[in-house]
Amino acid sequence: MLGGHSLLGVRLVNRVSTLGVNLRLSELFESPTLSELANTLATQFEQKGQSFDPITSISRGGVLPLSFSQRRLWFLAQIEGVNDAYNIPLAIRMQGTLDRNAWQAALNTIFDRHESLRSTFVNIDGQPQVLLLPSESGLPIITHVLRGEQDIDAQLHELMTLEANSLFDLEKGPLIRSRLIHVDDDVHVILLTQHHIVSDGWSVGLLIHELSEIYTAFCSGESNPLPPLKIQYPDYAAWQKDWLSGDRLHEQSDFWRTTLADAPVCITLPTDRPRPPQQSFVGACVPICVDIHTTYKLKQLSQQNGTTLFTTIMAAWSAVLSRLSGQDDVMIGTPSANRNHPDVEQLIGFFVNTLVIRVDLSGNPSISQLLERVHQCAVAAQTHQDLPFEQVVEIVQPPRRMDQSPLFQVMFAWQNNEEEKLHLPGVTIKPVEMSYDIVKYDLDLSLSETNGEIIGGLSYSTALFDHLTIERHVGYLQAMLQAIVNDSTQSIEEVDILSPSERELLLETWNATSMPYPDHLCIHQLFESQVVQTPDSIAVVFEDQRMSYGELNAHANILAHHLISLGLKPDTLVAICVERSLALIIGILAILKAGGAYVPLDPVYASERLLDIISDASPSILLADELGCHTLGEATLSSLTVIDVNVPMKGLTENPDVASLTTHHLAHVIYTSGSTGKPKGVMVEHAQVTRLFDATAGWYHFNENDIWMMSHSFSFDVSVWEIWGALRYGGKLVIPTLRVLQSPEDLYYLICKQGVTIFDITPSAFKTLIRHITEVEQCDQLRYIVMVGEALEPAMLKPWYAIRPDDSPQISNKYGPTETTVYSMYRAIKQEDCDQFVSPIGVRLPDLTTYVLDTQGRPAPLGVIGELYIGGAGVTRGYLNRPELTSERFIPDPFSKTKGARMYKTGDLVRYLPDGNFIFLGRNDHQVKIRGFRIELGEIEARLVEHPLVHEVIVVALGADDDKRLVAYVVADAVDHLAQLLRDHLTPILP
Known about the structure:
The chain has 991 residues and is α+β, with helices and mostly antiparallel strands. Among the domains are: 42 residues, no CATH class; 128 residues, 2-Layer Sandwich (Chloramphenicol Acetyltransferase); 230 residues, Nonribosomal peptide synthetase, condensation domain (Chloramphenicol Acetyltransferase), CATH 3.30.559; 61 residues, GMP Synthetase, Chain A, domain 3 (2-Layer Sandwich). Helices cover 34% and strands 23% of the residues. It has 30 helices and 38 strands. α11 packs across α14.
C-alpha cells in the first residue's frame, strides 16, 4: 500500500512530473498499490499527459504580488488586527558547543535565500502589496542569559510563551524572529517563530533542513552548499494568478459551488458556554494515542476498503461529530500542501490550502459505506484543491460571522510528512514542547503515525469547551475507531461510544432515587388531617368571600355524600364545569372524597373542545354552575346527571369513608392537546400527586403561613400544584377572577393586598408583569415565584434583578409534562443565569429517573442533545381510552431494576450539563407550548382543513418564547376576508 499520505504524495507526484507526465494527486489516491499506480502511469504515458510549464521569474522593480492565501490573511489582519493565532513557533534544545557565529551566519543566509522571509505587506490605495527587506539587513538574534539564575525552568517557560504570543508587524517585518537562550554553559534553547503569511508546516521542515546543511558547512569553513533557488515566492504568486484562470478556474469554481450548495452554516456541537460574539483563539489540547494493535487493524481495514488511513480516521471522526451534533451533514476542514508544481517544492512560503470535506451520513450507512463516501469526497476535494479556500468562501457565500470560521468549525490534520530533524555537528538536539495555547477552530484534531501508533491531540477553544468535555470527545473517537475495526458491517448508529464510567454516571449515579415517599393517604385525606389541626384557619379566598378549613370540609362532605348516593365509586369520572369561585374548590374536594376522579372543564374554553372531552371521558355526573351549563348547552346536559354547585345542599358533614379507595385510584383526568384534532386525557392517581410535595420539600419549605395564588385554569395541571400546595400545608388559597388575571396592574395589586407568598406564572406573563412591578411600590412578602408552563429565557429577568436580590423572592424554573404529574425538574434561578441563552430546567425530582436517549434508545453522550425520558413515581397511568398511544408513549424502562417500571417518552429535546443539570432545547415533534399551553400543531391543521374553503394547510410557531404566536399557511379558495373567516371557524373549536 502507498498509504495516501498527502504530503508524501505531493513529493511523489512532483517526481513523476519530471518525466513529463501530470499525475494528479487524486489519481494517486485512486491507485493505492504499486501495481495499480504502475498501470495508471502506463496509461498516462500513452496519453502523454500535459505536465506543468516552468514558473518564470517576474521583475523585481517596485512592489510584488501576494498569493491568494496571503491576501486572505492580510485582509483578516485589517479587520481583526494582527493575531498571534497565526504565529508558527518552534523551540529546540541544544546541548554541546554551539558556534554562535556560524549559527548567525546560517540564519542570515536563509533570510537572504528566501524572499518570503524578507517580505513585508503594505497598504497601497487600499490594496496589499509586498515590499522586500534588503538581504544585507540580516536576521537579528535576541539573546537571553539564564545561566546562574534561580528557577530557570519557570523563566524559560515565560520566555517561550512570550515569544510564541508576541505579535508581528506585517508592514515593518521581518516576519521571522529568532531568540537564543543560554540555559547553561553548554546548553542553549533556540526559539524560531514565523508568521503564517510567509510560512507553513512544510516550510518549517525546509527551514530545519537548510539550517542543518548551512550551519554544518560554515562550521567546517565551507561555503553555502545549497544550490540557488530558481524562483521565489513572489514568482509563484504571479504564476498562480495566471494559472488559475479561464476554464480551469470555472471548472474548479463550479465544483465547489455545487459541492457546498445548501451546506450547514455551522456544526451544532454542544458547548459548555455560549459562543462569544468575537471568535476566541485561546485553546488547549487533549492528547490522543491509539495503540499499535488498533492502528494495525485500522490499516488493514483501510486496505480492504481501497482507501487510506486518513480517510478511515476522517470517517470515524465525522461519525462522532454527527453523533455529538445530531447532524447528518458534517463539514470538516483539512489542510492540503498545495505544492503541486515541482518548482515550489523547495520554497519557504505560505502554500498550504484548506479543503472542505462534506460528509454525508444520512440513511444510517454501514462503516464500509461511510468509508466509501468519505473516500469519494476526499478524492474529489483533492482533485479540485487548486482553488484557494478564500475563493471557495467567496463562491459559496456563507453568512459571515465574527464568532466562528466560515464553512467549517472543525479541522482534521493528518500530519504524515517525515519530520525534519536538526542535525548540528557537536550538538545534541532535542525538541522542546511548547504550551502553545492557540486554536483557530472550535475543534482541531491533529494526528500522525509514529512507531506504529497513531498519536496526536484534539485542540479546542477554551471559550466553548471544558477540558473534561474534550477528554470525553477523545474517548468517543477511540471507541468509534475500536468499533469499526471490530465490525465494519455495522451501521454508524449501532456503534456505542459511551465508556463504562460515563454510562454508570448517566444511568446510575445521576439517577439514584430516594426511598419511595409514603403513599398511604389520598390527597383529600391530607387535607382532612389539616382540618383537624387548623379548622378555623382561612383555606380559600375569592373576592370578598372567605372559607375556613372546617367550613370548606363540611361543604365538600355534604356534596361528597350526595355523590356517593348516586353510585360513585373509585375511578369513576365526574366532570366539573365551574367558573373560578369557592364552589370550584368545594366541587373538586367533594369528588375526591366520594372516591371519584374529576375531569376539569373550564367554562371559558371553546365549547366544542369541552364537548370532545365529555364525549371521550363519558362521565355520568356533571358538577356545573350557570356559566358551565350555558357553555355546554342543553343537548349535552340532558344526557348527564347535573348538580348545580351553587344550589344550597343539606346532608352529612362528616368525612366519607370509602373503604375501597386507595392511593392508586384516579384523582383526576386532565386533557392536553392531541395531534389528531382531539384532546387526550391523562389519568393521574392520588399517590402521584401526594409524592409531588414530598419530593419537592427539600427545595421549598411551605408552611401554614403561606398564601398561594391560583393563577392558572383548573384545566391546566399547574392548578393541581397550586390548590393542594395551599391545602396540604394549611395555607391560604387566593382565587383571582379572570378579569384580574388578564390585567397585570390588578393582578399585582391583589398579590400585594392578599400578601401572596407563593406565585406560579408563565415566563411570558411574568415578563409583562415585571414592567408593571418596576413602576410601583414592591411587595416584600413573596417568598417563591415559580416559572411554569413554557421555556424560560433567563435574560428576560434582567429588569427584575435590577430591582430585586437573588433570593427575595426566590425564582425557580419548573419543568414537567402532565404525563409525569405536573413537575419533574427544579432549578433555582440566580441573577448570573441571566447571561444564558438557553432554558435551564435543573435537576430531576429525587423520586424520578431521567434519561437522555438518542434515536436508537441508548443514553446520549454527556452534553449531547437527545430526547428526555422520565421514569419513577410520577409517571401516570396513561391516556384514557387510548391504549395504543399509551403503549407508544409510556414504555418499559430498560434501565430500571424495578419489575414493571415504565418511563414516559416526552418528545422534548434536552441535554445534560457537566454538573447533572438539564438544559431544555425544544420539541422533536409537531408540538409547541404557548403561554403555558401545550399545543399540537397537527390539531390546528386538522381543524383548519375541515373548513370547506381550505385544501392544504401548515401551521408553525413564530417568534421568541415570550412572544410566540401561531401562523397558518393555507391553500384555499380565493374569498374576501379569508383570515377572519378561518379565525371565526377556529374560535369555538380550540382553547
